[in-house]
Amino acid sequence: MAGVVAYYSRTWKTRFVAQQLAKALGCRAIEISDLKKRRGPIAYMRAARDARGKKRTKIEPKTIDTAGYDLICIGTPVWWSYPTPAIMTLLDNLDIKGKDVVIFATADSTPELAIDILTKRVEEKGGSVVGSFFCLKGSDEERMKAVQDFAKRFKKQNRSQKKVIT
Ligand SMILES: Cc1cc2nc3c(=O)[nH]c(=O)nc-3n(C[C@H](O)[C@H](O)[C@H](O)COP(=O)(O)O)c2cc1C
């Protein structure tokens, strides 16, 4: 099975999780950059507002060629309970029709709504969410354990049953 992990990360927590997940599942990891300034106090407030308003943004790369992949993993930090504009934009641009998708989020404490929003968006685009997980505020060791636990459950699942692993 060929897979790819696409993620956005502002302060590298999601990047760490994405890289661990890619390693655990034997996938390639691709970082999505948001070309809008996201550093500094004003940018922080704008970031939160943009996320809650489901604003889109300019990203690089604009999309990923999913033709060669069976599994697409998509990761985002949570901003004001929402997925980031970079990942919402990527999903707009991504061809995931008929693909299995794993969603993950990193957050201080409130990942659920962002996962729900991404799940709905993946389904709207014809993908099926076959797993999701999140990592809350903590150490890299805790994040690594969350990824390993998810990857173990995910690999064990009977793929023919298309069970959703969380
Ligand atoms: C603008 C902004 C808004 C945030 N809002 C939330 C939130 O509503 N709930 C939450 O649990 N964490 C929130 N966080 C914390 C991040 O989701 C968390 O630190 C995440 O792991 C950062 O990922 P990153 O290092 O990959 O950028 C917010 C962070 C930022 C920058």
Bound molecules: flavin mononucleotide
CATH topology: the name is: Rossmann fold
Q: Note the run of SSEs as H and E.
A: EHEEHEEEHEHEH
Biggest β-sheet, characterized?
A: 6 strands, mixed
Count, helices: 5
Instruction: Give the low-confidence spans.
Output: none
Beta-strand share of residues: 15-25%
Mind telling me the CATH superfamily name?
Flavodoxin domain
Outline: globular
- The percentage helix is 25-40%
CATH class designation: Alpha Beta
Which structural class matches the secondary elements?
Answer: alpha/beta
Could you tell me how far the N terminus lies from the C terminus, measured between alpha carbons in angstroms?
20 Å
Structural commentary:
It is a single chain. With 166 residues, the chain is of the alpha/beta class. It has a single domain (3-161), classed as 3-Layer(aba) Sandwich (Rossmann fold), CATH 3.40.50.360. The protein has helices at residues 13-25, 41-52, 85-93, 112-124, 140-156; strands at residues 3-7, 28-31, 33-34, 59-60, 71-79, 82-83, 100-107, 128-136. Helix 4 links the parallel strand 7 (100-107) and strand 8 (128-136). The chain is globular and about 45 Å long. The mean pLDDT is 94. The site of flavin mononucleotide has 20 residues, from helix 1, helix 2, strand 5 and strand 7.
Question: What's the short version?
Answer:
Helix content is 39%, strand content 25%. It has 166 residues and is an alpha/beta fold. It has a single domain, classed as Rossmann fold (3-Layer(aba) Sandwich), CATH 3.40.50.360.
